[in-house]
Design brief:
Elements: H1 4-19, H2 24-30, H3 35-41, H4 66-76, H5 86-95, H6 103-112, E1 133-135, E2 141-150, E3 157-165, E4 171-177, H7 182-196, E5 203-207, H8 211-214, H9 216-225, E6 227-231, H10 241-251, H11 264-280, H12 292-297, H13 300-317, E7 335-337, H14 340-344
Parallel strand pairs: 2-5, 5-6
Antiparallel strand pairs: 1-7, 2-3, 3-4
Helix pairs in contact: 5-6
Length: 345
């Protein structure tokens, strides 16, 4: 809910921008409000205050009566229930042929009365924001992970180490080995740094919390190379979405050998073919359908500009076929790893 002072300031800024030549739609968009909302605010000539706090709303039919609410409070204070959560209180009452309210209602009343507290000696669970980084060009933020490839027999697996750039989705380094080891990860990162020619430049390397990622020797290498280390929250795979998305694309390819690779060499050969396809042929939906290599080298800007020209020419020939503007072929300017905005919303 927007306060009256903020609402008045928003109206003032929108009107000022509109008087200086900005379209009303664009001015409202900058403040994340719709034109219809702005028109409602200024419908009477001034700035209308929010009427929602003043509205009279009917009480829900299923609302607890004061007596029922008080009964819940008295029940949870009884000696037999004082150390139990509602999830155990409600079943025990049912065993006594008593029903007062649902479990969720018990919890809600306890929270409103400040009677719902953390129990036990363990620490209270805390919600932690994921580490967030913004890349505005290639080789600023990399993510890496390890996935298992099926081996020649059931229960045997090879490990694919993969490093990708989040801005271009370009696989900047990969290796296949028979097991997970921090030494293999160290060699891969060093090779990737050399191949991209970014030694000494600022770089963020994000990963999950696997043992090779958290190994002391691997972390020492990152510090030596001046690389900022970043880790996902425990048991939250969404914090490393770019690596996970690439592995999913790989394992859903028609030619992926679900029956297993016959040898380590076969796994490396197939992985090499996939990486070349992904980098040079795969038109990535997250990049507006250009290849990671085109994005990594900067070619994508001209490619997208040419697509825009093609669409504009098509629209000029048959304007009756276009009810709105042409498809958006603009190039992305930045890519965020776990953007904070999404978390706050």
């Amino acid at each position: 809910m927007i306060s009256p002072s903020d609402r008045a300031l928003a109206v003032e800024l929108i009107q000022e921008a509109n008087q200086n030549g900005a379209r009303l739609t664009e001015a409202c968009k900058e403040l994340n409000i719709s034109v219809r909302t702005y028109e409602r605010w200024v419908a009477d000539g001034g700035v209308k205050e929010d009427q929602r706090p003043l509205a009279k709303r009917p009480e829900p039919k299923n609302k607890l009566t004061p007596e029922e609410r008080q009964e819940i409070i008295e029940v949870v204070k009884k000696e037999e229930f004082e150390n139990l959560p509602p999830s155990q209180i409600v079943p025990k009452l049912a065993d006594q042929s008593i029903y007062i309210a649902s479990e969720s209602t018990f919890y809600r009343v306890l929270r409103m009365e400040s009677m719902q507290n953390h129990r036990g000696r363990s620490k209270r669970p805390q919600w932690k924001l994921p580490e967030s980084y913004l890349a505005i060009k290639p080789n600023e933020v990399w993510t890496w992970d390890i996935t298992w490839l099926p081996g020649p027999i059931k229960g045997a697996y090879f490990r694919l180490y993969m490093v990708i750039d989040i801005f271009s989705r370009m696989p900047v380094g990969w290796e296949v080995w028979e097991h997970e080891d921090a030494l293999y990860a160290e060699e891969l990162i060093k090779k990737s740094i050399i191949s991209e020619k970014i030694a000494g430049k600022p770089l963020v390397l994000h990963s999950d919390n696997g043992s090779p990622m958290k190994a002391a020797t691997f972390q020492a290498l990152l510090e030596k190379l001046g690389i900022t280390k970043s880790y996902s929250r425990p048991r939250v795979s969404n914090d490393n979405p770019y690596s996970e998305a690439m592995f999913r694309t790989m394992k859903y390819r028609p030619e992926y050998p679900h029956q297993g690779f016959k040898s380590l060499e076969a796994a490396r050969e197939w992985a090499g073919k996939f990486v070349r396809w992904y980098a040079y042929e795969h038109q990535h939906s997250g990049l507006n359908f250009v290849t990671p290599h085109q994005c990594h080298t900067g070619e994508y800007i001209k490619i997208l500009e040419k697509r825009k020209e093609v669409y504009e020419q098509a629209k000029s020939k048959h304007p009756e076929r276009w009810s709105r503007s042409t498809r958006d072929w603009s190039a992305h300017k930045s890519v965020a790893l776990n953007p904070i905005k999404d978390q706050l919303e």
